[in-house]
């Protein structure tokens, strides 16, 4: 039998609640594998020489992956019954191989009418903020499920 | 000369007009992705992203959360309509993408040959299930004036992508901004630099303390790894932070004593934000009560956040942050039993 992990309920989540940090080592393999898994074959995401010719110091993570990691970060905190209603991100410092990104977040807003919770998220690497944004998830009702 | 300048100016405004003519235009008509939503591509995605949410791959888990079957990660929607390897290997234009290719040609002609995505704003109407077939349509919302950015000079192109299913129903929208820029000329190989001062790589310097005549003695002591406490020369009451006048008796005469280094946690905070690049995060900061009686604010080291407690015994250590800055830090004192 599969045990499905619990999902946070709308009522137990409070504005200001922090999410635990998620540390993501930015290996070259991660950057290439995620680009290909998102069907993004732009050379700057896998070819260091061409990336340099185009003005970067090395290959860098594609935005589809930044979206995917932010999605993973919030839904792994919220639990599997949560549904993602919005992901809004802005990119800053690129994620290059060899660096580390730390995702952190907190509950920024709650909307009773549709049980949606906004999580503000920041992913920081050694150059600064790689990604800043907000993920909205709809949570189940109930006082507690944990 | 004037004629040349005028022609140049006319050329530029003509270019601007041709560029702005794309605003409101459909860059590509509704184009279905090459494959319907399917389990193998979802599995590749979740494996690469390190996403262990079972509802993406385990039907039973999906049912347990009230879903009809496995769903695709919301963030994956753009992947279903990516052109894939074929698009970069073959330059031939795909049907339905004329507007897109024309805009790219025009941007290339303006020298904006490099691209980087800067913003993505998704709104999701519903989750995608295996068998859904997603199509995308993209309309230009705006093209900015030329801007100078850290990457090079370029223009921000903002579009709205509308994703729809096999029935033509919208499943998601995405406001999408890319910077189309002119890469700067690559710099010549730099001369090998002389041995740099020993500062940890890619870590900036800590902010400088505001040193003045009243507190300079304290920072000088710190440079010699001596933690000093100011003492009133008249009534012998200790005080910190340093100041010119005894708060107890009002005397301006003072000297110092050196602290033993034995202390305990009076209170503490964990700093997550804002992140100054000189520090490691999360950053543990404590109000430390010295056994002499005064308190000071200092970093804690050698202890996990969950192990810090008020009243915890501490012992003084020193942090030589850089050649000009040494600061006291405190670590847990070893107890008799260990």
Summary, kept brief:
Chain A: This is MaoC family dehydratase. Chain A is α+β, with helices and mostly antiparallel strands. Chain A is about 20% helix and about 35% strand.
Beta strand count of chain A: 5
Q: Greatest interface and its residue counts?
A: A-B, 55 and 57 residues
- Outline the low-pLDDT stretches of chain B: 89-93, 192-202
The geometry of chain A reads as: elongated
Annotation field: number of helices of chain B:
7
- Give the end-to-end Cα distance of chain A, rounded to a whole number of Å: 19 Å
Lateral strand order in the biggest sheet of chain A: 1-3-4-5-2
Q: List segments of chain A where confidence is low: pLDDT < 50 over at least 5 consecutive residues.
A: none
- Give the fraction of residues assigned to helices of chain B: 10-25%
Kindly provide the radius of gyration of chain B, computed on alpha-carbon positions and rounded to a whole number of angstroms: 32 Å
Biased composition (Basic and acidic residues) (chain B): 195-204
Domain ChsH2 C-terminal OB-fold (chain B): 257-317
Organism (chain B): Streptomyces luteolus
Region (Disordered) (chain B): 176-207
